[in-house]
Amino acid sequence: MSGLQLPNELISIIIDYLHDDKPTLKICALICRDWIAPSRSHLLRSIRVYQYGVDKFILLCDNPFSTIHYVRAFELAASQKHEKEFYNNTALRKLLTWRSPDGQRTIATALPQLKSLSLCHIGFWILSDEAKEGFAGFRSLRELSMLNVIFESRDQLSALLSLLPQLEILSLTDIQVYHTRGRHSAVALLSKLHTIKMKTTRHMHRGIVDVFTPCRSLRVFHLHVRSFSGSSFACGDEVGRLLASAGPSLKEFSAHAQSLLWSDGDVDDTSIRFQPIDLTQNTCLQRISLDIRDGHIPFLRQLADATRLSPSFTPTLQSLEIKYLPQLTINWGAFDHLLQLPYFAELSELKYYIHVSPTERGMMDADEKAGDGTVRREAEVFAARLPRCKARGILCPVESTSG
């Protein structure tokens, strides 16, 4: 480039400022050789490869001029059109067993900065032993996300996790394990695993949670199920064991249901399903988020009562979210009194949702001042049920247009 030469440090500052502006970053990468590396480090931070693009991606890995090493988040996904076919697709096996012509480079060495790996619609049984061992090469991997991944047994899932000792965040969505009965090999203790997010839009398979129990480093646990009815959520005992193993390490717990729709014969027995979960052992909880749709709010009375038996108790809970709180049929006076007990002394927000239909939202957008007044009035009506919480200034209404 002719003219003024900028120091590399200044170039990096300029490019970093544009980190989320992809069109401009693409232009920057074409300016001169010195601008290519810092521009592509942001452009290639996260990439997604579909199963039919794996061969082209491998060619890119084998190119000596490739800048693929900047990738930090990698997703191997199936297009929705070919989702079922992908369970038996060999794309992942190709990636994990790839070697450069000189035999020196693997997919792990081609992605040395990889922090996050996402796998979607994989039948784990298609992987050879060599392919499975390929996961061990991702030494910098900190986050693993799996969507619709099928394992033949819990041992397969356990073996995968044992290859990733640096794992910090684990996200599992609609994971299936065909054979969950009998004993399974315990996963090697994941000493750095601090966040587990589990979501299922079907029935939650028993035995999966036990694979990563105990987890003494767990700080955040998010559970999202189809509903808290009997057939959809039948693994409360497993969740209870996991959270008990975390003890004081656990800081955040959330339990949410997708909908009010249950299968024939199901009942919303939330209180029964949550009985095996004892949060009193998690003495440093800072945030609880609950998606409760019946008149029973679990955990709170149990937590408040447990403090009376502990002379050294220190309140830590700062945020309590109960999404459908205004719609519940409960004793509001008793609930208001409950939240004044010592366990809730440090509570700074009680978050709840005020439902606004799309039609109402449209009318409110047309008349912003009237809309703000509508939400404010609903919040004031609800606040009258909890005068002590209102006096503390902890009520935090959130407008929601979802059901």
UniProtKB/TrEMBL annotation:
It comes from the Eukaryota. This is F-box/LRR-repeat protein 15/At3g58940/PEG3-like LRR domain-containing protein. InterPro entries: LRR_dom_sf, LRR_FXL15/At3g58940/PEG3-like. Residues 103-181 form the F-box/LRR-repeat protein 15/At3g58940/PEG3-like LRR domain.
